[in-house]
Amino acid sequence: MTGGLRPWYRPMTARDRGEEHRAATPLELFFDLCFVVAVAQAATNLHHDLAEDQVGHAVRSYLMVFFAIWWAWMNFTWFASAYDTDDDVYRITTLVQIAGALILAAGVPRAFTAGDFATITYGYVVMRLALVTQWLRAAAGDPGHRAADVRYAVGVTVVQVGWLIRLLLPDDWRVGSFLVLALADLLVPALAERPGMTTWHPRHIAERYGLFTLIVLGEVVLATSVAIQTGVDTGQADLRPLATAACVIVFALWWLYFDRAVEVPTRLPASLVWGYGHYLVFAAIAAVGAGLWVAVDHHRHLAHVGSVVVGHTVAVPTAVYLLTVWVLRVLPRQRGMVVVAFPVTALLVLATPWLPVTVYLIAALLTALVAVTVLVRQRELRSRSRPAAG
């Protein structure tokens, strides 16, 4: 930039992977905040279907909708890490992607209630084709990674044609065609990055994933707070103990994710596993919020499900979250008791729905797991300080 002024257009060259002090930009934060609208819609409709005892339909619709949300967010995030020029053309193209996210969010209720994924598909395609223009800009401005950029542009375009064709298929093909096209979408980065990885910034990616985790956790807090507030306003049963347990669960989920600094693997297979694995992290967090909302409804005698199902709506996503964090963040870097504690806690959480006061038991188990991580970390700190003291 000249004199602090931003140009309307500049060649899209690759950013330096070793760039110091690389942080999320205001545009990226705005992008995340707009995406949380879609996350909130998905979690709200998941809660509604679960409370109405439509568990199979709820889970299937939620996983499909959340894939579209997460995949569009993830692709922009990694692209921006490598090629953010912050010129006017880049900003406008990103705002088009945000508009696509809002279109997608508007289509979430119909996807749940009527199985109509048309609006979601249109929003998704808008987001993805806007990103194609970015990849073409990158191919023109970065000869060193042109092969990867062109592969991205071609691969994403072909898959979007597939998503549009899917709207014409019979309803019986809906799930099968979704799985095929989702797999095709997932294969695009794996194939595109093979001629030479784009220059995404590991610390920047770690920060971006952490920020989105915070936003999804904030959605859980909001959903739970609204549910409890509604109960309090109507003068129904005392919800304070349940509210306390819900807060403990959310606080523990935050603590366990941010217990240690994140390191994103830089080799292609490991980075794909790390990046793709966060689909389960984000989806599980939002689903915990929906489950806690169902628990509040059950406490108020509004949910049309039994206590065991209610328990599973919280226990299953909590266990998925624990196991995913264990695989992505604990196993690669830690040893000893904490490595065992995560899967054991996940198994115990899965057993809680058959016991009384499921939400309270989950809160207690997560508190114990947090205590284990603190003890292990303090032990490591003491062991590292001994040689220095000597």
Summarize the structure.
The chain is mainly α. The protein is 76% helix and 0% strand. It has two domains: 26-192, no CATH class; 202-389, no CATH class.
What does this structure look like?
This protein has helices at residues 26-51, 55-83, 88-113, 118-141, 146-166, 174-192, 202-233, 240-257, 268-299, 307-330, 337-351, 358-389. The chain is mainly α and 390 residues long. It folds into 2 domains: 26-192, no CATH class; 202-389, no CATH class. Helix 2 crosses helix 9 (268-299), helix 7 (202-233) packs antiparallel against helix 8 and helix 11 (337-351) packs antiparallel against helix 12 (358-389). The chain is globular and about 60 Å long. The termini are far apart. The chain crosses the membrane at residues 62-82, 89-108, 209-228, 240-258, 279-296, 302-328, 335-351, 357-376. This is Low temperature requirement protein LtrA. Pfam families: LtrA. Keywords: Membrane, Transmembrane, Transmembrane helix.
List keywords for this structure.
2 domains; single chain; membrane; globular; mainly alpha; transmembrane
Coarse structural class: mainly alpha
Average predicted confidence as pLDDT: 90
Largest sheet: none
Shape: globular
Rg value: 22 Å
Helix content estimate: over 70%
Give the low-pLDDT segments. Answer: none
Distance between the termini: 51 Å
Integer tally of domains: 2
Secondary-structure element order, as H and E?
HHHHHHHHHHHH
- How much of the residues is beta strand, in percent? under 5%
Question: What is the β-strand count?
Answer: 0
